[in-house]
Amino acid sequence: MKVQFLLNILLAIVWVFLTGTINAVNFTFGFILSFLVLWLISSSQEKQKYFIIIPRLISFTFYFLYELIKANLQVAADVITPKFYMEPGIIAYPLNAKSDLEITLLANVITLTPGTLSLDISDDRKVLYIHAMYVHDKEEFIDGIKNGFEKRILNIVR
Amino acid sequence: MSEHLIIYPIIVHLITAVLLLFFWMKPKIQRYISILGGGVGIVIAALLFQRVWSSGIQSIQLGNWEAPFGISMVADTLAVSLILLTNIVAFALAIYSTENMVSSRVKFGYYAIFHFLIMGLSGAFLTGDLFNLYVWFEVIIISSFVLLTIGGRKIQIEGAVKYFTLNMISSIIFLTGIAMVYGATGSLNMAELSRIIPEIENQGLIQTISLVFFIGFGVKSGVFPLYFWLPASYHTPPAAVSALFAGLLTKVGIYAMLRVFTLIFPLGEVNQIILMVIAGLTMFFGGIGALVQKDILRVFSYLIICHIGFMVGGLSLFTEVAIVGAVMYMFHDIIVKATLYMMGGVMFRIFGSTKLRNMGGLMDNYPRLSLLFAIPLFALVGIPPLSGFWPKVSLFSASYTAGEIAMLVMFIFASLITLVIIAKVWNKSFSKDAPKLERKSSFKYFEDFSFSEKAAYVVPIIILVGVTLYYSFFAEHFQLVAARIGEELMNTEHYYNAVFGIK
Amino acid sequence: MTVFLIVILSSFVFSLLLFGIGQKTFQRMTWFAALLPISLFIYFSSFARSIMDGEVFNFFTSWVPSLGINLDFRLDNLALLFTLLITGVGSIVFLYTTQYLKGHPKLMRFYVFLSIFMGAMLGLVTSNNIITLFIFWELTSISSFFLISFNNTESPSRKSAIIALTITGLGGLALLAFAVLAAQITGTLSISEMLQSPEVFANHQYSVILMVFIFLAAFTKSAQFPFHFWLPGAMKAPTPVSTYLHSATMVKAGIYLLLRFTPHFQNNSYFFTTLLIVGAITMLYAAFQTLFKTDLKGILAYSTIGALGIMVFLIGIGTTSSITAAIVFIVVHALYKASLFLVTGTIDHQAGTRDVTQLGGLRKVLMPLAIAGFIAALSSGGFPPTIGFIGKDLIYEATLNGGLNPTLLTTMAVLTNILMVFAGLLVGVKPFSGKKPEALGEIKKPHFLLWFMPMILAALSLLFGLFPAMVEALFTKNITPLLTGEASPHLAIWHGFNLIILLSAITILGGIAIYFFWKPSHKKESGMLKFDAFAPKSLALKFADLFQRISYFLTRTFQNGYLRRYVLIILVLLTLVFGIHVFINPRIFLELKEIKALNWNEIVILAMMLVSIIFTVFTKSRLSAIAGMGVLGYTMCLIFVFYGAPDLAMTQFSIDTLTVILFVLVLYRLPKYLKLSNRTNRLRDGIIATSFGTFLALTIIEIMNENPIKSTTQYYAENAYTLAKGKNVVNVILVDFRGFDTMIEIVVLSIAAIGVFALLKLHLKKHEK
Amino acid sequence: MSIEDYLTYIILPLLSTSTLLVFIRFLMGPTLPDRVVALDLLITIGISIIAVYSIVTKRPSFLDIAMIFALIAFLSTVAFSYYLEKRKRNE
Amino acid sequence: MKSLILKTVSTTLLPLLILFSVFVLLRGHYLPGGGFIGGLIAAIAFILHAFANGLTQTRKVLRMHPGFLIPIGLSIAILSALAPIILTGDPLMTGLWYEKDIAILGKIGSALFFDTGVYLVVIGVCLTIIFTISESV
Amino acid sequence: MEILLAIMTGILYAAGIYLILRRSLVKLIIGIVILGNGVNLLIFLMGGLVKGRPPLIAEDGKMLEGIFADPVPQALILTAIVISFGLQSFAIVLIKRAYKVLKTDDIDTMNKTDDIK
Amino acid sequence: MNDILIMIIISLGTLFILLAAIGLLRMPDLYLRMSVTTKAATLGVGLILLGLALYYMETSITTRVIAIIVFLLLTAPISAHVIGRAAYFVGVPMWKKTKIDDLKGMYNTKTHDLMSGFEEEEKPEAED
Ligand code: NA
Ligand code: NA
Prior knowledge:
heteroheptamer; B: about 500 residues; mainly alpha; two-stranded antiparallel sheet; 2 strands; about 0% strand; G: about 130 residues; elongated; binds sodium ion
C-alpha cells in the first residue's frame, strides 16, 4: 500500500511537471489521474520501494554522465581516425544483481555507456551477455563493471 | 426540433449500431434491435420525405456554423427519396438476415456493420460537403469490406482482395479529386462550389478534375471499364449481403455522379460524349457478360453493370427528361436488384447451389413462389407496366431530344439482352426439370425449413415486391418525385438557396 | 367508363382468381374458364350495333399523367373487329381446351396464361394511348412465351419460346422507340389525336427512323420474312394455343399496328414499297415451304406466315381496295385457320400423330370433324361459296388495280394462293380421305366439343360467304374509310364473269392439281433441310451462337480474374485523363528560381524521400520494403514539421509506427518475397506509372497557379478562439467546425476493428457456410 | 550571428548531413537489423532537428512532436526484433 | 518476446505513457494533440506491454476486452454530439461550453467530451486490432 | 519547394501505382500506403506551403494573425490518415487471412473469382 | 552570454550526433555500429534538448525536455538490446576481428531459452 501511495505521488509530480502548471489543484488532479492509472494497471505490478533513494540516484546520475562523456570521446577518436583499434567480443558477465529492476538498470547503463552493449540475460538471471568494443582482458573488463556501475546501482536499489 | 430531422436518418442507424455493439454476444436480441431500428428508420425517412416534399429542400448546418464554414447537410428530393428506399430495403434485409445470417456471423458484428453501412449510405445522400462525402464513402467501403469478408471462404477472400484493391484505388482517386478542387477553389461546400467553379478561368482544368471524379465514382458504380471488382465479388457473400450491395452500393456511385455533375461540374460537351460512350459500353459489356454466365448470382452481377449503363446514359444525355429517366431507373433498380439477390438466396436454399444447371422445376414445385419471383425478374426486364419499364419512356424520349439515336439503340440493346437473359434464367431454373442431385448432408434445404424460417426468407421479398408493384401501378407517384428531382438537379439555385438560407 | 376498364383488366383479375382456386378444385370446373371469353364476346357484341352506325366509344382514366400515359381506350370499328375475333375465337378455344387438355396436371396454369394473353390482346387493340398499346403488346409477347413453353419440361418447347420471345421482344422495344418518337413529334400519346395530323410522319425528318421502328415491331410480331422463323417453332405449344395465337390474335397484332398507322405514312412511298416487298417475299417463301412439310401443324405454320405475308402485301399496295381486301382477309384467315388448327388438334388427340404421310381415311370415325375440315379447307382455298372466295376476289382485285406493276403483283398473288389451296386441302381433306393406314390403329370417337368447336368456325366461314353483307356492314364499311378516307368497295360473292373469276379458277385448279400430284414425304422434307443452312432461322441461330462466343471471349478477356489487369485498366484511363489534359492544355509555369532557393535541409529531405521511395519499390526483401516505407513516412513527418503541421507530423508518425507493427505481426508467416513478374510487365508498368506521375505532377503545378480566396480558412483563423474556444485551429476544425467528419472517422475505425476481429476470429462450421 | 542564424545555417545543415549519412547506412544494410538500427537513429536525429527547428521558429509547441517521436520510435524497433525472432522460430 | 529488460521497462512505462496520453488528450484544443493522438499513445503503451509480457498478462492489466471501449467511446462521442439537440435545440455537434474556466482543463465543453470519446475509440480499435492479430498466429 | 513537392507527389503516385501492379499482396498494400502518402502530400500542397508557422493561436492571442499554414488541409489530412489507417489495418489482416486460406500472397493465383462455370 | 552557452551546448550535441552517424556508416559490424550509435546519439540529443531548455527557460518546456531525455535514456538501450539479441539469433555476422563470443551455443534455437553456463550446478532440467 505504502509503495503504491508513493508511486502515486510520484506520478502526480510527473503530471505537474508535464503540464507545467504548479499549483494545488493541478497536483490534486494529477494525483487522482495517476491513482486511476495505477488502479487500472496494479494487478501485475511488482511493488518496489525504489523511489525513496533520490539522493543516491542523483549522485549516480552524475557518475553516469561522466562515464558517458568520457567513453564517448574515446569512441569518437576511434570512429574518426581511419584505423580501428577495437578488439570486440561478447562476454558473459556473472551478475550480482538479482531483482528485475537491478538487472535492468545495470543492463541499460552498460548499454548507454560507450563501447559496451548488453545483449541478453540468461534465463536463470545469472549471466549478462555484453558486447564490448575493447576487450583487452576479460577478467579486467568484468571487474571494471563490478566495481563501477553494478556496485553503485545495488547501492541505490538495495 | 423539426430541422434536426435531416440528420435523424443517420443518427437512427448510428445509435442502432452502437446499441448492437453492446449486445455483442446476444444474437437474438440483436435481431430484434436491428428490425426495430430498421422500422424506425423507415418512419423517420418517411417523415423527412414528407417534409421535403411539402416544404422544399431542407438544410442544416452542423455545429451551427453558417455555411460554408461548417458541414452542411442538405435534404433535397433526390436525397430523401433515396434514403426512403434505402431504409425500406434495409428493413426488408433486417428481416431477411434473421435466417440468412447464422448466429456466429451475428456474434461477430454483422448487424452492427449492416447498420453502419446504412448510416453511411444515408450520410452520403445527405451531405452537402465534398470531403464529408468522401468520409461517408469510406464508411460504406469499410463496412462493405467487412461484410464481404467475414467468415471468408476461399472464393470470398479472393473476391474481397479484388473488391478491396479497386475500391481503395477509387477512394484515392476521389480524394485526389477533392484535393484538386480545394486547391483550385479553396472550398469544399458543394453549394458554394456550384458558384465558384463557373467563375474559374481555367475551365479545361476543371473539366479534367471532373473526370477524375468520374473515374472515382465510376469504379464505385461499376461502369465500363472500371467494374471488374463487381462480378468478382458480388456472388461470394451470403445473400443478405449481396442484396444490400446490389441494391444500394453501386447506386451511391451513381448518386454521386448525379450530384457532382449537376451541381458542381455541369457536364461539358466533351464529358458528355465520354459519358455517353462509357454508358453504351457499360450496357454492352454488362449484357454480354450476363449472357455467358452459368451461375445465377453472376448473371445478376453482370446485369447490375448492364443497367448502370441506363443511369449513366441518362446522366450523359443531360436534359431534365433524361435525368428524370435516370432517377426513375435508379429507384427501380435499388428495389429490384436487392430483391433478386434475396431471391437468389432462397433459390440457393432450394437447390443447394446457385449454378443454373443445378436448378429447375421451380414453376412446377413452387408455383406461388415462382409467381412472386416472376415479378422482380420481369420488372428487371422492363416488361410493362412493371417498374423497369417506366424509366425507359423518359430515357428513350430524351435520346431523341438530344439527337442521340445511338444511345437509344444501346438502350434497346440492353433491354433486349436483359430480356433474353432473364428468359434463359427462367427456362433453366423455373421451367426445366430439376436435375437429380444428391442431397448435401450438412446443408439445410428450404423444404426442411419451419414455417417461420420460410417466412423470414419470403416475407421481406414480399415487402420489396410490394414496393415494386406499387411503383409499377402507381408510377405517377414516382414520376412526380423524379420530375421534381430533375428540376432540382438542373436548377442549382434551389440547392444553393437552401444551403445559404436564401428564401 | 370504369366498366370498360374493368372489362379490359378482367382477364388479369380472372387469371389471378384461377390461380387462387388452385389446381385441384379447378379440374372439376374447367367450364368455368370459358365463362370469361364468352361473356366478353357478348359484351363487345353489344357495341356492334352502334359502331356499325359509325359511333366510337372512348374510355379514359388517368394513370401516369406526368408522362402523358393514361388508361385511354377507344373502341372503333377496327378495334371491334379484333375484339370480336379475340373473344370469339377465344371462347371456342377455351371451350375446346377443356376437353383437349382434360385432366392435364397443369390445366389451371394453362388457363391462367391464356386469360392473361387474351386480356393483353384486348388491351392492345383497344388502347388509344400508344404507350398502353405498347404495354399490352409486350404482355402478349410475355404471355405467349409461357404458352409456347407450356410443356415446360421439354427442351424444344423452351427453346422455341425463347426464340419467339427474343424476336417479338426486339419488336416490342422497337415499338416503344416508335411510340416515344411518335409522341414527341405529335406532342401527344393519344393515337386518335395523332391522327388529327395525318401524314405527319411521312415527311418528318425522322421518318426513316420511325419506319425502321414500326416495321421492326410489326414484322417481328407478324412473322414477316426474315423474322418469321419463330412462328413454326411456336407450334411446340399445345394446339389450342397455336390456334389462338396464329389465327386470330398474336400475329395479327402486327397487322393491326400497320393498319392503325397507315394513315400517318400516307404518301410516303418508301413505307408502302417496303411493306409490299416484304409481304411478297414472305408469302411466296412461306407458301413454297408448305410443299415440304409433313407435320400438319408445320404446314399450318407456314400457311399462316403466308397469309400474314399476304396481309402485309395488301397493305403495301396501299389502295382502298387492297386495304379492304386485307381487312376481309383477316376475318377469312381467322376463321379457316382456327378451324384447321382445331381439326388438327383433334386428329392429334385421337390418332396420336400429326404426320400427314401417316394419316388417311379418318372420315369413318371422325365424320363431323371431316366436314369441318373440309369446309375450312374450302375457305382456305377460296372455293365459293365460302368467305374465302370473297377474300381471294378482293386480293386479285387489289393486285390488278395496284399501282406499280399489276401483272407482277397478280402473278405473285396467284402463285401464293395456289399453294395455299394445296395447304388447305392437305390439312383439311387429306387425313380424312383415302384408306386408313394400318399403323394408325384403333381410333376412338372424340368428345363432342372436339369436333363441334371447329365445326362452328367452319360454319361461320360458310355463313359469311353466303351473306357477305354481314362482313361489310360489320367491318369494311367503316374501317376502310377510317384508314384510307375512301368508301369501301361493295362485297359480293358474284361480280359477274371477269378476269378475277378466271384467276380464281386457275388458283383453285392449280391447287387441286398440286394436291393430287405432289405427295409430301419425309424424304422431300429432309431434302429441303439441305437448304436450311441459308434459312433466316439458321443464320439467326448462327449469329446468336457467334454472339454468344464473342460475348464469352470479350467477357473472359476483360474479366480474366487477374486483379492486376483490372487495376491497370483503371490507371491507364486515369493516365489518359491527365495526359490528354497536359497535352491540350499546357499551362505549366516552372520557376527555376524556386529551386535555387532550396536549402540543404530541404535537399536532404527530398533526396531521402526520393531514395526511400526507390528503395521501397525495388528492394527484394519484404521487411526492407516496410522499413523503407517507415523512412518515407518519416520524411513526410519532417515535411509536416517544417511546413507548420505539428498535429500531422505526430499523427503520421504514430500511425506509421502502428502500421509497421501490424505488418510485422502479419508478415512473418508469409513466404519469401519473390520477384514474380517478368521484364515486359515491369517495363510496361513502369512506363504507365511514370507517365501517370509526370502528368499528375504537371496538373498539380497547374492547379497551384490558381490562388483562390479561402474564406473558410480566414473564418477559422478569426473565430477558432472567440467562437470555438480553442487555440489549436486544426484541432478546433477536427472537433468542432468539421467535427462530424471526425465523428464518422471514428466509426470507420470501429468498423475496421470489428472487421479485423471478425475476419480472424470467425470460423464458420461446415453447416453454417 | 544570432543564435537563430547559427542554428539555421550551421547546425541544421550538419544535422541534415548526419541524417543523410545514416540514411546511406539504411540503404546499404546489409541486414535488416542494420536498417532497423539506422531507422532508429534517424528518428533520434529527427528529434534533434525538431528541437533545433523549434528554436529557429520560436515555436515551443514543436517540442511535442519530439516527445511523440521519442515515445513511439522504439516501439517499431521492438516490433522488428519481434519479427526477426518469430520468423527465425518459424523456420 | 522473452526479455527481462524490456519487461521491466515496459511495466514502468505503462502508467507513464497512459498519463501522458491523457495529457495529450486534454491539451489538444490548445496545442498539438487531442483525442486521436492521445488514444494512440495509450494504445501504444499497452502494445508495448504486450510485446514484453505477453498478451495474457496485458489482458489481465486491462481487465476487459478492449473491444468494449469502442461502443463506450462511440456512445460518449454520440452523446456529446447530440447534447445540443437535446439541451439547447441547436444543430448536431454544436459546441456547448461551460461558462467558467475549470482548473487545468481550461474551458470545458462538449468538444472535450467528444474528444474523450475519440480517445477511447482509438484505444479500443488499436488494441482490438493488434491483440486479435497477435492471438491468431 | 512547391514545385519539387508537386513532382514528389507525382513520384509517390507513380511508386504506389507501380507497386500495386506487382504480383505480391504485400507490395500491393505497401503501394496503397504510398499512394495514401501521395494523396496526403497533394492535399497538403493544395493548401499552399507556409514554412514554420503552424496554425496555433498564440498564448496571448485571440486569432491567427499574419501568415500561417492553412489548417483546413491539415484537418482533412488528419481525417484521411486515420481513415486510411483503418482501411490499411483491415487490408493487412486480409493478407494474413488470404495467406491462411489461399496459401500464397501471389495475386495472380487468385484468379478463380471470374471463371465462368 | 547565455546564447553562446546554448550555441556551444547545441554544437556539442550536434557533433555527437554527427559522430554517431559517421560511426554507423564506418563501423564494420552491426554490434559495433549499435555500440557507437546508441550512446553518441542519445548524448547528442540530450545536449541539444538541454540547449533548448536553456533557450526558452520556461518550466513547462524544461519539464518536457526532462521527460524526453529520461524517456530516451530508458528506451535507447532497450532498442539496442532487443535488436542486438534478435540480430544474434538471425545470425548477423560479427566482425572478423572479434575476439571472444561467450554467447556461442548458449541459445536454444527452438525455444529461444538462454543458458548461463552455470545451470549444471543446480538442477539439470531436460528440455523437450
Ligand atoms: Na564504443
Ligand atoms: Na486532435
